[in-house]
Amino acid sequence: MKKIKVGIVGCGAISQLNVPGYLENSNCEIISLCDTQHTRAESRSQQWGISPNIYTNFDEFISDKEMDAIEILTPTFLHSEQIVKSLNQNKHVSCQKPLCTTLDEAEKIKTTLNESKSKFRITENYLYYPPIIKAKQLIDSGAIGEPNMIRIRHLRGKSSNSYRLEDDTNVWRRDSNKNPGGGLYDGGWHHYATAVHLAGEISKISAFVSKNEDFIDETPSSTIFEVKNKKCLVSIDYASSPEMYLRSKYYSVDEFFEIIGSEGTIWITRCTGEMLDLPPLMIFNGDKSTHYQIDSDWISGFKGAAHAFIESINNDSPIDMNIDFSTHVLKIALGVYESSNTLKTVTIS
Predict the structure, then answer these.
(1) What residue segments make up the domains of the chain, in order of their start?
(2) In this predicted structure, what is the pLDDT of residue 167?
(3) CATH 3.40.50.300 is the classification of domain 127-300+332-347
C-alpha cells in the first residue's frame, strides 16, 4: 500500500485535533506544513516530532510535486480559492468545515472537481465519533424502528481546562464581512451534517436565531428541520450558561443527542464535552435499556476522519462529506439564517 504524502495548511488551534490522526497512520507521512506565521509552523513540527518542509506562501506550498494530499485548516473565507487551486495541482483535498461561504463558491468547487481526478471531502469529525458511529449502526439495523424525531442540544459555558486557543482563533470568525453567520454557521455545521447523516436530506427549515453583541454568540437559538420524504423532524437548540463550568478536555461546549424511533430511543450523552455522568451511548426499548461504554474522546472522531481520508485515497473508494453532501449542508446552514431573517419556513431545493 502506497504511503500517502500529506501537506497541512493552517497550523492554528484546530490542527492540534486534526493532525494526530495522520501522525498515527502508518500509511501516510506529513511532509509539508504551511502557515502565514513561520514560527507557528515550526512550533507545531517540534510538537509533533516531524521535520517537514515549511512554507508561508500557499502557492509555493501546493507546487510541491511530492505531496499527494492536503488537509486545509484555514479560515472558511479562504476555502474556495485554496480548494480550487489544490485540485488544479492534482492534490487530493480534505478541508475543514464549513465548505465555503456561498453557493456560488460551492458550484465553482464542484466544477473544478468534475474536471479533476482528485478526491475531495469536507472534514467532519462528528461522523467518525464512536458513539455516533454506533448510533448510526443501531438505527440502520432497525433497533429503534423508524426514527421520527432527532433532538440535539448544544450548550456553551465556561472552560474548565487548560486547552489553549491561538490568539487569532476567533478574530476572523467575528468579522461579519467574511462569514454569513456566527456560531450556528461555524459550529452548527457539525449538527446539520450529523442530522443528515443519521436521518437523510433536509427539505424544510424553520429557525429563530438570536443576535448578540458578540457576532459568534447566537444563543439562545432554535431550529426545526423536516427530513425529505420521511415523517421525521430534527430539532436543534443552542443555549449558553456563561457562568457555569463545563467538564471538557477541549472547548467549553457540551452536546446531547436523542433519536426517537417507533420502537425505541437512543441517547448520545456527550461529544465535545463530558457534562453528564452517564454512559456515552444508551438505547431504550420499553422496560429494557442497554448501555454502551465505548470510546467517547472527542479527538477520536478527528482521528477517524484522517484515517478514512487516507484509506479512500489508497483504495480509491468513496468517502463521506463529498461535494454534494457538503453543498447540501451549506444550504441548510444558509437556510437557517434566511428562515430567521424572513420569519418564514425555507424550502431547500
Answers:
(1) 4-123, 127-300+332-347
(2) 72
(3) no
Per-residue pLDDT tens over the stretch 79-123: 999 999 999 999 999 999 999 999 999 999 999 999 999 999 999
**pTM to 2 decimals?**
0.96
Assign domain 4-123 to its CATH architecture.
3-Layer(aba) Sandwich (3.40)
Amino acid at 64: D
